[in-house]
Recover the amino acids of this structure.
């Protein structure tokens, strides 16, 4: 687990010990570190796909990682349009991937 | 009402906060990222004497200094709109509306993409995204990566990824064409790399910096590239497509001629679990546009920048800018510009006491000095382009602003 | 390989073909390309593809780059919920 972590670094030093927390993504439990963003926590567990395009249904993950592109938006505890790259992971957080919208939603312009 | 609101806690914003707070101003800094420091956070640079400059430590120092002076720094908050009411700037954030006498935009730069078939697949990210993932969040963007786009930033970050224990398979060009623009042209990219010559351990590049014209360099460039820190840099190979069903699995690439044509029959597929796209940086000036600033198109500075003078004033009273929003340069320059902006705002709010003007002029001088000594030059001709911009500003707005 | 099917605007999945045809047909500005194709009108507000579209317009014979910001920004520059717009704290 967490093999994607950079535990040792020749210039930045060793990763400090972090408190482990649990987060849920689409119902599945993942271990994260306190201080992670949602995006870094999920990537550390090998999860790259955060949502599906509303219309074309193509899978999407982070692109810019600093809040510019909005590719990483997820639902958090029921709140829509949360940028996973800018939001700290918190213990017991319920995160959902954004799914493709039904035709009526797209037509209704609720985007 | 607060004296100064600063949007962006990068080196420019924090530098300005320190300078303004040192003169007794009440300062509030807002930033949407989880930590203060802006893009300085991910940076790692090896100085010519072999010492590493760690952006996280630099940011921490600036932050501590600002906090010590009583600056209010709020992270995790986005600014989405600005309004001017008589002498007050209203800053609309996702938390609350904040009013201030002076406002500084220090929102930095955003990355320019290079659209490539397959670039919406999970696992494809901008080069800066990988830098932040590895150096700031300490999570590898993947195990084995391919970087598309050869430039100062991509080469520097490739090295940083390597230090994170990531295998960088190669750095290569995008498929030449309209979408890639100059990023697909070997000669242009050679030119860009030569600006890194003093940093490069590779004798070819170092020699290139002094002797070889970019044209010759691109032609002499070995077909299999050359290596920097063991990473093949390939100006004669281009990425045609990023492959994968649900996420990145590899890249289809081919050889290209010196002027960037794909050579038939040279295609192959190389596996990778992530791909970085490095198209360069452009000033992020959306809030200046919303506020109603005049703009100027300056390619040397990375694109459209708000018109401003050397004191970091825009054409709107009480609105200042500093850092990469004024043009893409290194973090040290951004910080020096921040200091100028902080002092300028102190001047406007009559907080610059004895010897204040001398301080301000010295800070302006420091920006030029820092620029001349910068290790990373994102574009050639920055100094001249800035002079011209300041001249334009003075021509149009000098009389209308607070007298100096 | 033809560039036509390549997606330029990731948010709205607008391809090179749509953008190129629009520029060639109308010889228009970036702003008009945006309004006609929806490229740059998605969630990111054009932050990702704006510079590419500006360059394509210039190279394909649309309006030349001027000092004005071509894809002018309108607030909010970040999508926000109606609660936030109404001044309510989240
Ligand atoms: C991805 C990336 C990687 C870079 N890597 C290097 C490098 O390796 N070496 C180098 O010399 N230079 C690098 N640069 C250039 C870098 O921009 C400068 O070195 C320096 O960080 C610029 O400082 P700044 O204060 O102007 O902006 P930044 O450091 O970018 O800080 C701007 C801050 O403003 C915040 N912000 C922006 N808009 C809003 C908003 N609407 N609401 C709230 N907050 C907002 C951002 O979250 C950010 O923290 C990089 C730039 C980028 C974009
Ligand atoms: S990855 Fe771009 S906004 Fe989060």
């Amino acid at each position: 687990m967490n093999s994607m972590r950079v535990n040792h670094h020749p210039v930045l030093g060793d990763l400090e010990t972090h408190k482990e927390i649990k987060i849920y993504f689409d119902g599945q439990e993942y271990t994260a570190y306190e201080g992670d963003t949602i995006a870094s926590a999920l990537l550390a567990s090998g999860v790259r796909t955060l949502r599906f395009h509303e219309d074309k249904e193509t899978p999407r993950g982070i692109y810019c990682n600093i809040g510019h592109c909005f590719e990483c938006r997820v639902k958090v505890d029921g709140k829509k349009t949360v940028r996973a790259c800018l939001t700290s992971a918190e213990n017991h957080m319920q995160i959902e991937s954004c799914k493709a919208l039904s035709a009526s939603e797209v037509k209704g312009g609720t985007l | 009402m607060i004296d100064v609101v600063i949007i962006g806690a990068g080196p420019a914003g924090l530098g300005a906060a320190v300078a303004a707070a040192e003169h007794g101003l009440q300062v509030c800094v807002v930033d949407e990222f989880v930590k203060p420091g802006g893009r300085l956070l991910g940076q790692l640079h090896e100085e010519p004497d072999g010492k590493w400059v760690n952006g996280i430590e630099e940011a921490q120092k600036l932050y501590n200094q600002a906090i010590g002076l009583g600056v209010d720094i709020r992270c995790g908050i986005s600014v989405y709109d600005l309004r001017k009411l008589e002498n007050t700037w209203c800053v609309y954030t996702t938390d609350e509306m904040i009013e201030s006498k002076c406002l500084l935009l220090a929102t930095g730069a955003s990355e320019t993409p290079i659209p490539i078939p397959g670039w919406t697949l999970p696992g494809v990210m901008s080069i800066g995204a990988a830098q932040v993932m590895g150096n700031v969040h300490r999570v590898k963007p993947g195990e084995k990566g391919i970087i598309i786009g050869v430039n100062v930033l991509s080469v520097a970050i490739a090295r940083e990824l390597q230090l994170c224990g990531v295998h960088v398979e190669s750095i290569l060009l995008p498929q030449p064409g309209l979408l890639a623009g100059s990023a697909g042209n070997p000669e242009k990219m050679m030119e860009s790399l030569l600006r890194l010559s003093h940093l490069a351990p590779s004798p070819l590049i170092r020699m290139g910096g002094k002797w070889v014209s970019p044209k010759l360099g691109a032609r002499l460039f070995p077909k299999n590239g050359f290596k920097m820190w063991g990473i093949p840099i390939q100006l004669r190979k281009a990425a045609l497509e990023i492959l994968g069903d649900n996420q990145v699995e590899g890249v289809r690439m081919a050889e290209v001629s010196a002027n960037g044509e794909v050579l038939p029959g040279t295609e192959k597929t190389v596996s990778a679990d992530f791909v970085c796209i490095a198209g360069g940086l452009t000033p992020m000036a959306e809030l200046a546009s919303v506020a109603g600033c005049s703009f100027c198109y300056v390619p040397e500075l990375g694109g459209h920048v708000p018109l401003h003078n050397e004191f970091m004033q825009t054409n709107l009273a009480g609105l200042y800018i500093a850092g990469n929003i004024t043009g893409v340069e290194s973090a040290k320059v951004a910080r020096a510009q921040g200091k100028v902006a902080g002092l300028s705002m102190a001047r406007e709010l009559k907080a610059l006491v004895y010897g204040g003007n001398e301080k301000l002029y010295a800070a302006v001088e420091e920006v030029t000095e820092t620029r001349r000594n910068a290790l990373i030059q994102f574009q050639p001709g920055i100094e001249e382009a800035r002079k011209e911009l300041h001249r334009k500003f003075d021509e149009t707005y000098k009389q209308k602003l607070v007298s100096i | 390989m033809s560039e036509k099917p390549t997606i330029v605007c990731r948010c709205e999945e607008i391809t090179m073909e749509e953008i190129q045809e629009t520029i060639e047909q109308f010889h228009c500005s970036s702003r008009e390309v945006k309004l006609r194709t929806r490229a740059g009108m998605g969630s990111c507000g054009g932050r990702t593809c704006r510079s590419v579209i500006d360059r394509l317009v210039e190279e394909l014979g649309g309006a030349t780059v001027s000092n004005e910001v071509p894809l002018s920004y309108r607030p909010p520059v970040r999508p926000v919920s109606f609660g936030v717009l109404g001044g309510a704290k989240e």
